[in-house]
Specification:
Length: about 450
């Protein structure tokens, strides 16, 4: 069977989420079956494994609806795409598409790095469900990354094709030192973009009311957005890293008081898994996907409520916080209600602050994200099954991995075992590599 993987979303220079997802998946899938990568720029090869490749037009080209005419000349049996928008008119091969989330139906602001005409089409595309249905139903199988997104796909009847849930995974950022100590500093870490639905404003306002805490913003950020956030709450202690290598990110995350995220919607939540692997507490908005991933190992607050976020953060320092009830409880995906148990973290928590009387907005040395290798065994196997299904070698029943079945239910957050109970260890062990560093 000749398999082609659409690698045209791999970025030149620095990975974003889809780029890292693609590179990790290709690396793992190639261990199971020979494959050929589809690229649109030779420079993408720097962030991809050393595998056979073919050059076709880019996914943002006006030729995209008919890209299958180029691909079919390569005589593939199956093509896998990490996105749902790959053109399919004129194809003669099996096609597996990936739908990560439905965020932009509620938050229609497109990514800023897209060409103007693509941004316009993006907005039009998300005004109705029928374009999504048309694309997905032209495939042979569809993959998504969470039960939450799968539920939305079914609710809106977006496809008649077999739907497979293959959860994302997180690369191992290191092993925490044991025995573990409660951090002495107030370092809060945010990893993610600055799109409006990410709720970074909520985090900034929350930190403004916490003089003993500082917010480390790890991702690359433009000057205009940096200035806007600084003006939003001048009293907030903000540290802009403007990108970080994996080692730098791991060092900061391991010594943090908590990873914080205020998103109103997500397709998954890789940083949550990364933080829990390191034993760092997780304070996030109470949305279904975070309940699916964080279970009772996270502390929740209502989206958009900075005061509630601040209370959730300060609650981590309260006696007995390891068994405190959620700040804003709601049913978990399996119908149960969990009690968040913040995870332990390292004592190597360093602080940085400007001299008295000077602005407390800090700049970290500019860093570029380094490409990484290592992909999830679990995810690679799941995608291999989906590819086989598209080629007619598997049944149409969806194969799903339910994260709630291995929910983290940890004991004392500062116990010797950083991964808590057996289900917690099993869940972490399954997640051994995947996308990030926007």
């Amino acid at each position: 069977m000749r398999i082609l993987v659409d690698c045209r979303y791999v970025r030149v220079g620095q990975h974003d989420g889809i780029s890292r997802f693609t590179a990790g998946l290709v690396d793992e899938l190639a261990k199971r079956h020979p494959l050929t990568m589809l690229i649109s720029d030779h420079r993408q090869l720097a962030n991809l494994p050393a595998l056979p490749w073919e050059l076709v037009s880019p996914p943002t080209s006006v030729r995209e609806p008919w890209v299958a005419r180029q691909v079919r000349k390569l005589a593939p049996d199956v093509v896998f795409s990490p996105m749902q928008t790959m053109g399919s008119w004129g194809r003669t091969y099996g096609l597996v598409l990936t739908l990560h989330d439905l965020i932009y139906y509620e938050n229609r602001t497109p990514p800023r790095d897209l060409p103007a005409f693509v941004r316009g089409l993006w907005r039009l595309y998300h005004l109705a469900w029928w374009p999504q249905r048309m694309l997905l139903n032209r495939a042979d199988a569809v993959v998504t990354v969470s039960e939450t997104t799968a539920g939305l796909i079914r609710r809106h009847h977006l496809t008649k094709r077999p739907l497979t849930v293959v959860p994302n995974a997180a690369d191992a950022l290191g092993t925490p030192d044991l025995p573990r100590q409660r951090p002495t500093g107030g370092r809060l870490v945010y990893m993610g973009s600055f799109m409006p639905y990410k709720g970074v404003d909520t985090l900034v306002r929350a930190v403004a009311s916490l003089p003993d805490h500082e917010l480390h913003l790890m991702s690359r950020i433009g000057d205009e957005e940096r200035q806007r956030l600084t003006r939003l709450a001048p009293e907030a202690r903000l540290v802009f890293h403007d990108g970080a290598t994996d080692d730098e990110y791991a060092a900061i995350l391991e010594g943090a008081t908590a990873l914080v995220t205020a998103s109103r919607a997500e397709g998954f939540g890789i940083p949550l898994v990364e933080a829990m692997r390191l034993g760092t507490p997780v304070v996030v908005t109470d949305i279904p996907i975070f309940r699916e991933i964080g279970g009772d190992a996270a502390v929740y607050f209502p989206a958009g409520e900075a005061d509630a976020a601040a209370r959730a953060i300060t609650g981590l320092d309260a006696p007995g916080s390891g068994s405190a009830a959620p700040r804003h409880p709601s049913p978990q995906p399996n119908g149960s209600r969990g009690r968040p148990r913040p995870r332990s973290c390292s004592s190597s928590c360093s602080r940085s602050a400007g001299p008295a009387g000077e602005p407390r907005t800090l700049d970290a040395t500019e860093r570029r994200s380094a490409p990484r290798s290592g992909a999830p065994v679990e995810s690679g196997a799941g995608h291999a099954d989906a590819v086989g299904s598209a080629n007619g070698s598997a049944s149409e029943s969806s194969r799903s991995s339910n994260p709630s079945a291995t929910r983290n239910r940890c004991n004392d957050p500062f116990a010797t075992d950083p991964l808590g109970s057996a289900p917690c260890r099993a869940r972490a062990a399954a997640r051994t590599g995947s996308p990030r560093r926007a």
